[in-house]
């Protein structure tokens, strides 16, 4: 397979690129603008490997996307490039509207022109796979779970921009016959996760003896999935998913934010005992505006239809993630030094 991966220097895109290049022997072109969240060091394992190429470009540049597709001749586009941090979308939504909505429009137009020009098997094979989030569905109460038929109800600038992009993708299928696939996944964690996101922020602040900011009372619930399990789900969808369908992907691992933070503290205390238990570093901070209370995913469709199963439980995955951060300071330390430890976003103000 020849696969064009947008956002392949980011957290999930780099896991997809590694899986495709190192395990599947696919030919991969990563297209990435290298924003603050993109880092070529995240795909260092792929660099120099047979069939791996990198293009530094903005997905909003439709002419460049058209040219990239014409030259690379992909069998599939896996579209992950996005602005992805909810807190940043609240302090400044412009980049989210530009990349997540206009950028997806640009990718769809480039893919439409490319697909229209294909013939025979190449045309039948082509897929445009749009990678999205469960946040488009809004917030759940105590019970229930999101599924492929849940109505959209986005509540943050980030989730609204992703919802808009999902609608565009479906419209390009219905209107122009573009062979699309859409996936909506729950919260990911794992290696190469940018240090501003909850799990790496807590691991690294706890290691450095800094305050561990927890929004509100820490009762918000997220469903966590290891990024390598998400990457395997995405590859199975692009290979075997039914055109025009949506697949929800989740970890069946609902945890309160406070529980996640406490688990990280306890695992770090075992690995690197400090002067005092790290739970003492926890600080409850003013809640995020419009903070969704609970997310949960019913992933029975992808399990039933494509036979996907996650391999890592939250307990084994989080322990492995902590060990990865302990072993890979070369990756995260320079990013932390650029001041992404949470202060910039006001996250360490006590409530
Ligand atoms: P990320 O922020 O780690 O990576 C995004 C990548 O996109 C970066 O490499 C960045 O440089 C690149 N990018 C941004 N704007 C670009 C542009 N205009 N042109 C080209 N490249 C650009 O994000 P992530 O966590 O890896 O998320 C990837 C995708 O998965 C996103 O679409 C996100 O909405 C979705 N998703 C994320 C999660 C999660 O928990 N992180 C869960 C479900 C879905």
From TrEMBL:
Keywords: Lyase, NAD. The keyword Lyase applies. Its cofactor is NAD(+). Pfam families: GDP_Man_Dehyd (PF16363). GO terms for molecular function: dTDP-glucose 4,6-dehydratase activity. Residues 4-320 form the NAD(P)-binding domain. It catalyses: dTDP-alpha-D-glucose = dTDP-4-dehydro-6-deoxy-alpha-D-glucose + H2O. Its EC number is 4.2.1.46. InterPro entries: dTDP_Gluc_deHydtase, NAD(P)-bd_dom, NAD(P)-bd_dom_sf, Sc_DH/Rdtase_CS. CDD domains: dTDP_GD_SDR_e (cd05246). Gene3D superfamilies: NAD(P)-binding Rossmann-like Domain (3.40.50.720), UDP-galactose 4-epimerase, domain 1 (3.90.25.10). Belongs to the NAD(P)-dependent epimerase/dehydratase family. dTDP-glucose dehydratase subfamily. NCBIfam families: dTDP_gluc_dehyt. This is dTDP-glucose 4,6-dehydratase. It comes from Belnapia mucosa.
């Amino acid at each position: 397979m020849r696969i064009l991966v947008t956002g392949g220097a980011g957290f999930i895109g780099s896991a997809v690129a590694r899986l495709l290049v190192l395990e599947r022997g696919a030919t991969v072109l990563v297209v990435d603008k290298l924003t603050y969240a993109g880092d070529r060091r995240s795909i260092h394992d792929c660099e120099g490997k047979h069939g791996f190429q990198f293009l530094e470009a903005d997905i909003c540049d439709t002419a460049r996307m058209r040219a990239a597709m014409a030259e690379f001749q992909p069998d599939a586009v896996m579209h992950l490039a996005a602005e992805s941090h909810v807190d940043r979308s609240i302090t400044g939504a412009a980049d989210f509207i530009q990349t997540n909505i206009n950028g997806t429009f640009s990718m769809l137009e480039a893919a439409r022109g490319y697909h229209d020009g294909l013939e025979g098997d190449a045309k039948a094979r082509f897929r445009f796979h749009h990678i999205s989030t469960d946040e488009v569905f809004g917030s759940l109460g105590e019970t229930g779970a999101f599924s492929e038929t849940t109505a959209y109800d986005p509540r943050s600038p980030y989730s609204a921009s992703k919802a808009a992009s999902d609608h565009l993708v479906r419209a390009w299928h219905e209107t122009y016959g573009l062979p699309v696939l859409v996936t909506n996944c729950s919260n990911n964690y794992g290696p190469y996760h940018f240090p501003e996101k909850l799990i790496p922020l807590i691991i690294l602040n706890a290691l450095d003896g800094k305050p561990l900011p927890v929004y509100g009372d820490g009762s918000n619930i997220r469903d966590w999935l290891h990024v390598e399990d998400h990457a395997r789900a995405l590859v199975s969808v692009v290979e075997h998913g039914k055109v025009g369908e949506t697949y929800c992907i989740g970890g069946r691992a609902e945890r309160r934010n406070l529980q996640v933070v406490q688990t990280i503290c306890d695992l770090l205390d075992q690995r690197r005992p400090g002067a005092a238990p790290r739970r003492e570093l926890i600080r409850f901070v003013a809640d995020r505006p419009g903070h969704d209370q609970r997310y949960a995913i019913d992933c029975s469709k992808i399990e039933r239809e494509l036979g996907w199963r996650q391999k890592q439980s939250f307990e084994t995955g989080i322990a492995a993630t902590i060990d990865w951060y302990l072993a890979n300071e070369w990756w995260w330390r320079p990013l932390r030094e650029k001041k992404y430890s949470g202060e910039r976003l006001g996250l360490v103000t006590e409530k």
